[in-house]
Amino acid sequence: MKTKNNSFKSSMGKLFKSLKPYLPMLITALVLIIISTVCMLTGPNRLSEVTNVIQKGISINLTLSDEELTSLKNGNSVTSKQINADNLTAIIIFNYVKDVDNSTDGFVAEDVLNINIDAKITTPNEEKNVTVDFDLSMGDVLNAENGFFDITSFNGADLSALGGVGVSWANNQLSLWVNTKAEIDIVKIVRICVLLVVLYLISYATNYAENYIMAILNNKVSYDLRKRVIEKINKLPLSYFDKIQYGEVLSRMVNDVDTIGTTLNNSFTDLIAAGMQFIGSLIMMFATNWIMALAGVGATLIGFAFMFLIINKSQRYFVEQQRLLGLVNGEVEEAYSGQDVIKAYNAEAQTLKNFDKKNDKLYATSWRAQFYSGIMHPLMGFIGNLGYVVVCVVGALLVHFGKIHFSVIVAIMIYIRLFTQPLAQLGQAGAQLQTTAAASSRVFELLEADELTDESAITNQLANVKGNIEFKHVKFGYTPNKIIIKDFSVKVKAGQKVAIVGPTGAGKTTLVNLIMKFYDINDGDILIDDVSIKDLTRENIHQIFSMVLQDTWLFQGTVKENLRFNKTDVTDEQIIEACKASGVDHLIKTLPKGYDTVLDDNTNISAGQKQLLTIARAMVEDSPMLILDEATSSVDTRTELLIQKAMDKLTKNRTSFVIAHRLSTIKNADIILVMKDGDVVEIGNHKTLIKQNGLYAELYNSQFEN
Amino acid sequence: MLKLIFTRLNKKQYFAVVGMIVLIIMQVWLELTIPDYMSEITLLVQTPASSMSEILIVGAKMLACAVGSAIFAAITNFLSARVSTGFGKRVRHDIFEHVNNFSSAEISQFSTASLITRTTNDTFQIQNFVARGAMVFIKAPIMAIWAIIKISGKNYHWSIATVVAIIFICAVVASVTSYALPRLKKVQLQTDDVNRVTRENLTGLRVVRAYNAESHLEEKFAECNDKLTKTSIKVDKAMELIAPSMSIVMSSLTLAIYWIGAYVINKAHAINKLIVFSDMVTFSSYAVQIVMSFVMLVAVFIMMPRAAVSANRLNEVLYTKSSILSGEGVKVEPEQKGIVEFKNVYFQYNANDADEYVLEDISFKANKGDVVAFIGATGSGKSTLINLVPRFWDATKGEVLVDGHNVKDFTLKDLRKRIGYASQRAILFSGSVESNVSLGETEPNVDSIVQAINISQSADFVANMSGIQAPISQGGKNVSGGQKQRLSIARAIAKKPEILIFDDSFSALDYKTDKTLRAAINKELANTTVLLVAQRIGTIKDADLILVLEDGKVVGKGKHEELLKKCKVYKEIALSQLSEEELNENKK
User: Fold this and answer.
1) Separation in Å, CA of A679 to nearest CA in chain B
2) B312: distance to nearest CA of chain A, Å?
3) What is the reported pLDDT for A2?
4) Distance from C-alpha of B131 to C-alpha of A368, rounded to nearest angstrom
């Protein structure tokens, strides 16, 4: 058995192979994604530049720590650490001048502080040292609006060299603000903003262009896959469909291809964009500091492990959910199509109980699947936060031991955010890819099933068929271990009407399947005009025979289209002629639009009438030989008699095979083959077989006995 | 759609929804606090003076918020998963139960296939919508309102920018959906077409090959495939506009706020600059939150049309009432038991259809133990006629009486208890031979099952299948057509009904089995009234009464010999099956 991973790989590989014709499109899309992502990723950096420029134009601030404040209040002089801004460095010294309130937890209006600022201002042209010294009455600060007291205009201290100084007292914290004199560099801001607008527009345009290309691409891929499926359907041996339900094939054609289309689009884009961001930030992190990078990645890896655990688990529930949905569907189908019977037996409650059992199971799996898939997003959010905290703590430790400068932490923190951002997207894309893989493995399983034997080497073409057919020791079984036809031999001369009778399961339809080469015989041979069917193409054989089956098959379309089918060269007159011959002309004329009536589910025609139409279709095809497989089983016996007459005209001089339940249909056959358990037990015509007094006579007489 | 959703939630689920709202409020609160801690921790790390313990404490607080929010989110998600799938379960149950009470009229109105899709597929669509939509519908407004409160009154320039962004989003979504919606519906229809043509090819596999029509069908398919692909590309092209638009709006909004901010700060008074600056940073992060919640809502609104289509389809089913209603119930006199009588019965499928009656003026009476047979051409109304007895349909005019009472006066349960019915197309359900034969019985009686299996001539093959416990697969695929019919006959007999109805149930049996089966029924169930539709003269010629139908009218009524003499149609039918000599020979 293949492992899950292998089947994932192989089906994705096959899917990518089917993308091959669109490689140029795919590469264009890829380039566009890269451009778009790069534009998008530079965004935050540029935006922080804007912030920097604005910040430069504002101020620097200093807040005293609790220890410093206590020390100050205890009457000590407090010298701040040097504060650095772009164009200004300053050391500030605080001193208590007057301390009215001795308590340690605040100031009163009468308190006075002396503040000394020793600053160095750097402008492009010069470096200037400025010393400012002033006394500050805390009353002014406490009464100030917003808790900010602007000292700039205060009692004569020359603060003009600085942009402005302010003091605030809020939340038991004393802060000092120094405004640099510099204005915000609006020109620079406009330049960056315009650049950003351009970047955003490029990103928008490339993003849409890429989406546009992918939309076309995934639709084309879906188109191709659907086309391949339908062509495949027509190339598969019939035996393939013995093992698979039609609904299953349909579901692959429609649902699975649809899934591939939509997920391909989303997951592809997400995966590339998120992957790029992921790898890019990873590289940048390791380049900046490997210890912190490891710490950050370690934290997120835990998250990844969780994510894969969840994907794995939820995938199981999703698969189970799909299976149970199928079961419920089956239950519903059974109940709805057996409505009459359920009602007639008052079995509604019982049916509902059975349904509920499966419905409950579906619910139990369904909510779990839903839960696991829904938990992904909050989990990823948490992991992002975890990574952030871990990096902060490790970074602070490293700074503490003097290993790095804190600017390294700032850089890493930006990268860790960029690193964790795409996690959720990757998770989602991963889950989607799983679905894509599941869907494509179903589609490719169908596409790769063994086809009918190749016939391109056969050049024989049987024209002007006489109609001699010979079965020579034919042996056949639908499965090798269950042989149905053991040793079947018979010779049919041109123009003979051959009837095949016998109980259900005797192998009557199987014989027809073999002549038509729907199935290949295991052993022996069938000869048409002394040519083995192995040396004839199926197409050729199908040309020779017209066939009418018990299962009436009509498609949605007008009556005329149904009768003409693929014989495009048949005139309307010929169609009407055939209908008159098969006695269906009258019926068609009573339909609302006659020959142009569209046949669909709502058309009120009975099974018997449908059979008449399929017989007419066979007459339109007008092939040299004819096969009727229970073709009149749903037609009432009087109508059948009329068809019979038409048929006899039609089968005159044509070799024909008739399978029938009603023995009246075949009384005038030239050869009657009586089959039982895959063997021909009696051969003869009606008279000789009745005389023989065997199985045929028994079957025939049972309709009269009392 | 909302009504469909809200009326199907039970108390527990409402409780869960309230819980979700509370949890989401807390979760939003935590989520909006995390950025504060994040900037605090950033500040601390950037400030050389801060101690390790401070960083650890803030880090721990932030982690606690993150853990809390993740836990709340997980619980919310759990509740949401339970509520949405529980809702889906309930809807499936309701639809299934409702459809079970439909009469044939409603079922054919919707078609079985469509009802199946509605029960599973459409329900699933809505369930998914509830699953994804519920949380967003609660969370997005809370987040938006919260964020709006936080930034209200800060600065009208920025507010204008935010409003413009929201209007832009709404405009993009409105124009895209108004373009895409009609085309989406078209996509749905074209998908149906692709489905149909594929289905046609599959079901007609042998015919298609016999006529060498593979390429013909492939061309037809290509046409549908082309159309579908073209419309689908059109829709996708429009829909793909949404994601990049959302992304550019989000980035542009931040940019706009900063850009505007630069001017505002510049103009502000020296000290205020800083306040304005920090306001700007907060504003931009909350504005993004607001826009984000709109984007979330938009995502739901994109899902909505599809869900609404499904909801409509489900409502159509739920609001359709069965046209066959149970009667009040009657008391049956013992001597009336087993009598079936038709009194001038007319029937048409669609009562508004003025002209065509499917059955016209049918009258007959079957006494207890009688065998009444119906014969006629395909489409002459035989099945329709006997379907009036168990009330699969109701007579348009006239009266159908069972046990001396109009069938409409019985409760449906009581009426159907009196009737054993074997349908034209034998229907078996997955289960066992026993569960099929004892369908509807709460306490199956093994003796009557075995007896029924014997009478229906099923004993041999049932024994070969390992007895009455032998499994039957879906649709009875593991038994042949004739065996299916015999089991469905056994089912009718096992019920020990007063009246047996066989709707062409003998057609797949060979003559021999047909004969022995009828003989067994005559012998074992002599007191049971039998209504019998058949094609074969042989099957019905011993009946007590034969009704010959043509175009919905009775053209002959009597016994076999009488009808041979006086009914032309009957004689024609007979002659089409037996030769003149055989008929005569048979008379002797």
Assistant:
1) 19
2) 20
3) 37
4) 12
CA distance B364 to chain A (A): 22
Residue A367 near residue A287, CB atoms below 8 Å: no
Please report, for residues B156, B159, B161, B252, B529, the alpha-carbon distance to residue B164 in angstroms, rounded to integers and kept in the order given: 12, 8, 5, 11, 80
Domains of chain A: 58-182 (no CATH), 469-701 (3.40.50.300)
CA distance A115 to B435: 98
Of B78, B62, B60, residue with least CA distance to B23: B78
Instruction: Among B201, B255, B480, select the one facing A230 at the smallest CB separation.
Output: B201
pLDDT in tens, A364-390: 988 888 888 788 778 877 887 788 778
Segment (H or E) for B205: helix B205-210
The two structure tokens encoding residue A380: 């990823």
* Of A97, A94, A79, A91, residue with least CA distance to A131: A91
Contacts of B440 (CB under 8 A, 6+ apart): A342, A345, A346, A347, A350, B495
Residue B30 in tokens: 């935590």
For chain B, domains (ranges, CATH) are 2-318 (1.20.1560.10), 336-418+498-559 (3.40.50.300), 425-496 (3.40.50.300)
Of B322, B330, B495, B500, nearest in space to B407 by CA: B330
Quick one: pLDDT band at residue A227, thresholds 50, 70, 90? very high
pTM value? 0.73
Return the amino acid letter for A38. Answer: V
The pLDDT value recorded for residue B518 is 87
Is B482 an interface residue toward A (CB < 8 Å)? yes
∠B448-B449-B452 over CA atoms, to 5°? Answer: 85
Give the other-Cβ count within 10 Å of B335's Cβ: 10
Are A367 and B216 in contact (CB < 8 Å)?
A: no
Give me the DSSP letters along B291-344: HHHHHHHHHHHHHHHHHHHHHHHHHHHHTPPPSS---------GGGTT-EEEEE
Mark yes or no for CB contact A333/B116 under 8 Å: yes
pLDDT of residue A604: 62
Output the pLDDT for position A263.
74
List CB contacts (< 8 A) between A150 and chain B.
Answer: 269-271
Question: Cβ of B15 under 8 Å from any chain A Cβ?
Answer: no
What is the rounded CA–CA span in Å between residue A669 and residue A688?
12
B352 shares contact with chain A (CB less than 8 Å): no
Task: Look at A68-77, A570-579, B508-517 and tell me which has the smallest mean pLDDT.
Answer: A68-77
Pair B313, A98: CB distance under 8 Å: no
- Nearest CA to A88 out of A2, A177, A207, A12 is that of A177
State both tokens at B157. Answer: 């320039």
Q: Judge whether residue B268 has pLDDT over 50.
A: yes
> Distance between CA atoms of B297 and B292, rounded to whole angstroms?
9
* Whether B46 and A351 lie within 8 Å, measured CB to CB: no
